[in-house]
Amino acid sequence: HLLRSSESETSHDKLIGGLLKAGFDEGSCVSRYTTSLLYRKPSPYKPSPYLVSKLRRYEKLHKRCGPGTEAYKRATEQLDENQVRSSDKECRYVVWVATEYGLGNRIISLVSSFLYALLTDRVILVDQRKDISDLFCEPFPDTSWLLPLDFPLMGQIDSYYKEYSLCYGTMLKNHAINSTTTPPSHLYIHLLHDYRDVDKMFYCEANQAFIKSVPWLVVKSNLYFAPSLWLIPSFQTKLIKLFPQKDTVFHHLSRYLFHPTNQVWDMVTSTYNANLSKADEVLGLQIRVFSTPSGYFQHVMDQIVSCTQREKLLPELATNGSSHSQVMNTTRSKKLKAVLVASLHPEYSDELSKMFSERPSSTGEMIQVYQPSGERVQQTDEKLHDQKALADIYLLSLSVNIVTTERSTFGYVAHGLGGLKPWILYEPKNRKVPDPPCVRALSMEPCFIRAPLHGCQAKKIKTTPFIKHCENWNLGIKLV
Length: 480
Ligand code: GDP
Fold this sequence. Notes:
Elements: H1 2-14, H2 30-39, H3 49-65, H4 70-81, E1 93-96, H5 103-119, E2 123-126, H6 132-135, H7 168-173, E3 186-191, H8 197-200, H9 205-212, E4 216-221, H10 226-229, H11 233-242, H12 249-257, H13 262-276, E5 281-287, H14 298-310, H15 324-330, E6 336-343, H16 347-358, E7 366-370, H17 383-397, E8 401-405, H18 409-418, E9 423-425, E10 438-440, H19 458-463, E11 467-470, E12 473-479
Parallel strand pairs: 1-2, 1-4, 3-4, 5-6, 5-8, 6-7, 8-9
Antiparallel strand pairs: 9-10, 11-12
Helix pairs in contact: 5-12, 5-18, 12-18, 13-17, 17-18
The structure holds guanosine-5'-diphosphate.
């Protein structure tokens, strides 16, 4: 009996409480079933039974409508003919286009687009021309989420922008949609940070009816727009059932969708096994320097030390004169704490490491600092660079506590995936350490930094209890 219950517990952990489906080939994507089993503590957040059943139904839909099927073929024929066939309503799609922005931007917008697809019974297909398939395994069984390279609009989608005549916001601006308009076979949805008020009308309930009748939506976004989907009344009803714990949307969906490929997984596990597995506790530190020029700055270093000591994430140093062995003898704690640093700049971890090797900590804790990569400059779409970035994000997500940089989507993904409420380093002004240096986040959710504050959702943003303005960023909202 004992054996059986532990077996079922193992399978429960392996499938993250039913979030994942059993039966994928394990060798071709080792991370899928081993992350939660071997490298993470069980998440305190369980997916709801409704979310689990919704994902199983989604997987069936994706298999029926995905690339290579008759249904996909028929649906793409509508694009060639540029009209919607009334007989072919069964499969509708969201095409997520990889924009020029970094991995964090891509991941948060892909999660939002997938959530939109779930809510509207569409199938998500991802643009594979960038290195997405070097980073992630296929998330859905017996099918593919990759948009085929011969997709009829492939030659045009890079040029879609606000001016495009089938850009939804532009159609609204031109009054090109009324109750008699026949829906086109595709629409371009512009949800990038530079979008206009007309583009933000996408988030209005009344506008969703027309959009629903269009089989193909091509989306460009670099935002985490999930919070605004909660403010569309008909979506909210479904969302409350899917996510009774409202601040778990990114956490569950990112764990469901993103499984690093074996190449990335080797990077993650080799770092983990060599440097983190022996530690009693791991602190993740994500240091993104947005100033130009970027690089190593003393005030940023001071801010990191100030934040981590003030929040008791790292110990103070022992008073001058006491040696390592004296401190070790007089204090009981022999804890080993590993600090995992992710930054483009290797100097931060070098300094931190030096600090703790020259003088012992006042608590006797041993502090070991480790930084797997130090790429110096962003090189999005260089395969190895992006793989290292994903490995860093994943490693950060395995820590017990995490400190991230304000408004960095790279940090958002790490803490959301990890189920961690981060401490956020405020953005320094005038090269000074902000006071206070950091703040505890309201929730583990990413911030929607360009929320539609003034349109149809204005009132709801103010009155919905689970939507709050982001920490130190009033233009943004987040689920709490
Ligand atoms: P954001 O700009 O901080 O919102 O995050 P993005 O992920 O969208 O873009 C930053 C890009 O710079 C990343 O995708 C990486 O390519 C690179 N980068 C930034 N910080 C790090 C880091 O700590 N480690 C690694 N490996 N790459 C980083």
